[in-house]
C-alpha cells in the first residue's frame, strides 16, 4: 500500500510542504491506479496530460512556498455531468458523446483555483437517471468490494454517482464530486464504504452542472473521511453570481476539531420511525440501532420522532422528477449542440430521430411520463398535487428541526439508514426496472432533496457478505457544521477505513 494513501488531505498537504512527499509522485500514482483499476470502470475519461501539468505546477508552488490552499496538489475526480473546459462532458449518454464545453462549472473552477489535480471524469447513469451506475453508454461501474468481479457476479457501486464513489473507495483519488438529486451521492457512498455529503440546496453552485431536476440537484462530495469532506466543502461552497439559486450570504468556512472537546450531551438525535420500513434488512436495522445506542451511551439525547409524509415521498419525487426531466431534456433537439441525426426530410423528423438515437430507454420513458403529467388535463391532478405534498414533507422536517410543539425539544440531527441493504448483485439489480430500482434504493435519501436540507452518509461496518453498510445523518438547512461534527464523532468511534481493509488492499494489488 502506498504510504500517502493513508493520509488525510491536511496530512498530505503538510507532507508536500515539508518535502517528504512530491505532488508529482502522488499524481503519477493516481494515474497509474486509474489504469490498473480500469476494470472497475470508474472513469469515462482520464486526463493524464492535464493531470501531470497540474501536478508539476503544484510542486513548483510548494517549492516556492506559494501553495494555494490545503487542497493544492490533491488528486480529485469529477462526475461527467459537470462541464469541464476543453474536456469532453458526456453525461454518459450518446446525446453528448462529443460535447466539449467552452467553460468550467463553478465547482470545477473553484477546485482548480484551490490547486487540485483533476485525474478524470467519472462514470454515471445516463443523465444521472438511476441508482446503480448501470445505464452508462460506457458500461456499468463495478463495486471494488465485490468478492468476484467476473461475469455478472459483482455488486453495483450505486448511483448515479457510482464512478466517483468507486474512484475514492479504490484510493485512486482523495476526493470526488458527484451530484445528488434523490440520493445519488449518499447511495453510492453507502455501497462503496466512503463518506458522501449532500449540502443544503443553494449552498454550492449548480452553474455548469448539466441539470436533471433543477429544484433538487445539488453538487455532492465524496471522501474517505469527514475531515477531507470539510476541506472540499470549504473550497466549493458560497454564493455564485452565475447561479441565482445559490444562497446569497457569504459562506463561513467550517473549522472543526472533530475529535476534541465535542460534548454529545448538548446534541439531540431524532430516530424517524417511518424509516423502519418494508425491505429494511436485519443487518442495516441492527447497525442503525447500535449507533443510536452508542450516541445515547455517550450523552446524546436520542428520541423517536415522526415524519408522517415520508411514505408518500417516493411517489411525489417520481412525479416531480419526471416533470422536470421532460422540461430539461427538451433542449436536446439536434440543432444547437449534442448528437444530430442525418438525412432527415423535415424538422420534426430531425427532432424525433435525434432523440431516439441519443437517449436510452430510461431517459425516453421519463420524458414521456413527465409530459403526460404536464398535460393540461393532468397538471392539477399530478404536478400541482405533488408540489403540495412536497411542502408537507418539508414541513415535517421543519417541525422536528425548527418549530417544536407541545414542549417537544428541537432535534439537531436525524439518524437513519442510507440504503435498505448492502450493495445488490448486478444480476439482481438489473432484473428490476429503473423505476422500481429507484423506488427502493432512494427511499431513505430522496426526502432530504425535496426539503433542501443537508445530509451525509458515513460508513459504519461490513455486512456478513463483506460489503459496507452506511448510515445517514440529516439536519436543518445550513446546519452543515453540526452535521459534520456528529458524523466526525461517529467516524472516530467506528474507525472504518476502506483502504485498511484486506479486501480492498487485495483488489488494488
From TrEMBL:
What processes in GO biological process is this protein linked to? glutaminyl-tRNAGln biosynthesis via transamidation; mitochondrial translation
Under which name does UniProt file this protein?
Answer: Glutamyl-tRNA(Gln) amidotransferase subunit A, mitochondrial
A Gene Ontology term for the protein's cellular component: glutamyl-tRNA(Gln) amidotransferase complex
Q: What does this protein do?
A: Allows the formation of correctly charged Gln-tRNA(Gln) through the transamidation of misacylated Glu-tRNA(Gln) in the mitochondria. The reaction takes place in the presence of glutamine and ATP through an activated gamma-phospho-Glu-tRNA(Gln).
Q: What is the native source organism of this protein?
A: Ceratitis capitata
> Which residues constitute the catalytic centre?
79 (charge relay system), 160 (charge relay system), 184 (acyl-ester intermediate)
In short, the EC number is 6.3.5.7
Q: Which UniProt keywords apply?
A: ATP-binding, Ligase, Mitochondrion, Nucleotide-binding, Protein biosynthesis, Transferase
Catalytic activity reads: L-glutamyl-tRNA(Gln) + L-glutamine + ATP + H2O = L-glutaminyl-tRNA(Gln) + L-glutamate + ADP + phosphate + H(+)
Q: Does the keyword Cell membrane apply?
A: no
Amino acid at each position: 500500500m502506498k504510504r500517502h494513501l493513508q493520509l488525510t488531505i491536511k496530512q498530505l498537504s503538510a507532507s508536500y510542504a515539508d518535502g517528504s512527499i512530491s505532488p508529482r509522485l502522488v499524481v503519477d500514482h493516481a494515474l497509474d491506479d486509474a489504469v490498473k483499476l480500469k476494470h472497475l470502470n470508474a472513469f469515462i475519461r482520464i486526463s493524464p496530460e492535464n493531470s501531470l501539468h497540474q501536478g508539476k505546477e503544484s510542486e513548483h508552488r510548494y517549492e516556492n512556498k506559494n501553495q494555494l490552499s490545503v487542497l493544492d496538489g490533491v488528486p480529485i475526480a469529477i462526475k461527467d455531468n459537470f462541464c469541464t473546459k476543453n474536456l469532453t462532458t458526456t453525461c454518459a449518454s450518446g446525446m453528448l458523446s462529443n460535447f466539449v464545453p467552452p467553460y468550467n462549472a463553478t465547482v470545477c473552477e473553484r477546485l482548480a483555483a484551490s490547486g487540485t489535480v483533476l485525474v478524470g471524469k467519472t462514470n454515471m447513469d445516463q443523465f444521472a437517471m438511476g441508482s446503480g451506475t448501470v445505464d452508462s453508454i460506457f458500461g456499468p461501474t463495478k463495486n471494488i468490494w465485490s468478492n468476484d468481479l467476473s461475469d455478472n457476479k459483482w455488486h453495483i457501486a450505486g448511483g448515479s454517482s457510482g464512478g466517483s464513489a468507486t474512484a475514492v473507495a479504490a484510493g485512486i483519488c482523495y476526493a470526488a464530486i458527484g451530484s445528488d438529486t434523490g440520493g445519488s451521492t449518499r447511495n453510492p457512498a453507502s455501497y462503496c464504504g466512503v463518506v458522501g455529503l449532500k449540502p443544503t440546496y443553494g449552498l454550492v453552485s449548480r452553474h455548469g452542472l448539466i441539470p436533471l431536476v433543477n429544484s433538487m440537484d445539488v453538487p455532492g462530495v465524496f471522501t474517505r473521511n469527514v475531515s477531507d469532506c470539510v476541506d472540499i466543502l470549504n473550497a466549493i461552497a458560497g454564493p455564485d453570481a452565475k447561479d441565482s439559486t445559490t444562497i446569497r450570504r457569504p459562506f463561513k468556512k467550517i473549522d472543526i476539531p472533530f475529535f476534541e472537546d465535542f460534548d454529545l450531551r448538548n446534541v439531540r438525535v431524532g430516530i424517524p420511525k417511518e424509516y423502519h420500513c418494508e425491505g429494511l434488512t436485519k443487518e442495516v436495522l441492527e447497525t442503525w440501532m447500535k449507533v443510536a445506542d452508542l450516541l445515547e451511551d455517550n450523552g446524546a439525547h436520542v428520541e423517536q420522532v415522526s415524519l408522517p409524509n415520508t411514505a408518500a415521498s417516493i411517489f411525489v419525487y417520481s412525479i416531480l422528477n419526471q416533470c422536470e426531466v421532460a422540461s430539461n431534456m427538451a433542449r436536446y433537439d439536434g440543432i444547437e449542440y449534442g448528437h444530430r441525426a442525418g438525412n432527415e426530410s423535415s424538422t420534426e423528423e430531425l427532432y424525433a430521430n435525434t432523440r431516439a438515437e441519443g437517449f436510452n430507454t430510461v431517459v425516453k420513458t421519463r420524458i414521456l411520463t413527465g409530459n403526460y403529467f404536464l398535460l393540461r388535463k393532468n397538471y392539477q391532478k399530478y404536478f400541482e398535487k405533488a408540489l403540495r405534498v412536497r411542502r408537507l414533507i418539508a414541513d415535517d422536517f421543519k417541525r422536528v428541526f425548527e418549530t417544536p410543539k407541545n414542549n417537544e425539544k428541537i432535534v439537531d440531527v436525524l439518524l437513519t439508514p442510507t440504503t435498505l441493504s448492502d450493495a445488490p448483485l448486478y444480476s439482481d439489480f438489473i432484473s428490476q426496472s429503473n423505476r422500481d430500482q429507484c423506488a427502493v434504493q432512494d427511499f431513505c435519501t430522496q426526502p432530504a432533496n425535496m426539503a433542501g436540507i443537508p445530509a451525509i452518509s458515513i460508513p459504519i461496518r461490513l455486512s456478513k457478505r463483506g460489503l459496507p453498510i452506511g448510515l445517514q445523518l440529516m439536519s436543518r438547512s445550513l446546519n452543515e457544521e453540526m452535521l459534520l461534527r456528529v458524523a466526525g464523532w461517529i467516524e472516530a468511534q467506528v474507525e472504518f477505513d476502506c483502504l485498511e481493509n484486506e479486501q480492498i488492499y487485495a483488489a488494488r494489488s
